[in-house]
Amino acid sequence: MISALWNGISGLNTFQKAINVESNNATNVGTLGYKSDVVSFEDMMYQNRYGKGSNVQSVTKAMSEQGGIKFTNYTFDVAIEGKGYFMVRDIKSDGTAQNYYTRSGNFKMASDGFLKTQSDMNILGLSSVSTPPNSAFTDNYSRSIVSQSINNINFLETVNARSTDYTTSAQSDVLADTSGNNYKTKSAKLTDIDALIADYKSKLSVYSSNSSEAATPSTSQVSTVDYSNYLSDLINENDVINITIDGNVVKQQFDTDIQTTLKKFSDKISNIQGLTSSIDSSGKLTINSLIPGKEVKLDLAKINNNLVVPLNVVNAQLGTGRGAVDSSKAALELVLGRAGAQLLQIDSKIDLTGEKNLNVDKIQLNLTNLNLSNSIGNVVIEDGNIYVKDGENKFIVGKIETATFANEQGLVPEGGNIYSASKESGNAVYAGKLNKLVGSAVEESMSNLGNSLTALLIYQKAFEANSKSITTSDDLLKTAIELKK
What we know:
This protein has 485 residues and is α+β, with helices and mostly antiparallel strands. It has helices spanning 2-27, 166-169, 175-178, 186-209, 258-270, 321-338, 449-484; strands at 37-43, 54-61, 69-71, 78-82, 85-91, 97-102, 108-109, 115-116, 122-127, 129-131, 143-151, 155-163, 222-226, 240-245, 248-253, 275-279, 284-289, 298-303, 311-314, 343-351, 361-362, 378-382, 385-390, 393-400, 402-404, 412-415, 418-420, 429-430, 435-439, 441-443.
């Protein structure tokens, strides 16, 4: 009977603890990323085949279980689908930094521009480096040229370019000074810029699809035509000098004198989109393609339609990889410069070669703070990669990293949805290949209200049963004492 009392007391103690645990699960049914506590019971030492009651063997977290993914449409929310934890950093009162781990991805952009938890801990990951450094798109760079993302196993990169307003700054060349020597009208300069922008975008697109290709530069076609031996046939207005370029005939009738005629002929060629042309007094014509790697087909160089003049062509070479992009960019800068405009290209890049070492730090999101633009920008998170949009431009600024542990059960719950590592958990290791990060979503609590209420009812009844065993044992003791009297 005395043993029955102790058994009942152990049961009361055990199920009181169990009720506490399950009530905690119930109260955390809305806590993001919460992992349910699981109670395990054990029976106590036996004597003469009689049990000595029960005890709570352990209270563990269901760390390996995945909570439901809830889409929120909120920019800064991120959910982990799979294994791993977000890495966060807090600064303690003594000024030292302490890393913690969480599954709760309801983040925010703090007033200082950094990505943080709701309790102002910094989210850790990789940050981009921009080239050229300390260069920003100011209001002067009003024309968006291109924005291209380039991703491979070694790096994440965005290439953004803007220019000053070339439509305003472009002016026709002074005819008296440049006729016959690469003369361009304003409209011709603008069409050249359009062609070079299209080429630049095309080369970037090709590069993005095969960014590991070796870099070799492109070269432009240079063609010469020597009319010097036939100029004596240009005598009057019935005489014509011509050439066929990409299937189109360019011709100039005799005008005033031979030199005027040659200059006007060259100027017509020079104002063709993507070309410049110059001619010397002897009648030697040089045609340059402005677009690197592009072939220009020349044919039928004649005077008076009956004399074929020999052509000399140095063929264009199409480069590869980033070399082709850089050649196209240089050509675009050249034509923009002739239009009185400037180009600014900003490359933002995250090096992934050391990603598995988890050399992480806080992530800045504000484009102004990053000195990339005079606009804060709009954040977009795609599979943990953080981009910030500013008009038509999109910059890579960071990458959220996740970590896992050899023994997740060894993590220490610290409250506030965070855990700390311990000797039992082991050190944090890279978990990027073990999960997928879902943007604009959060992981819901693992706690199930129905299960918790059912368990609470069971534990309550068990508590009542154990209290009943105590009162029953007490009555039996009273009866035994009365019999002895």
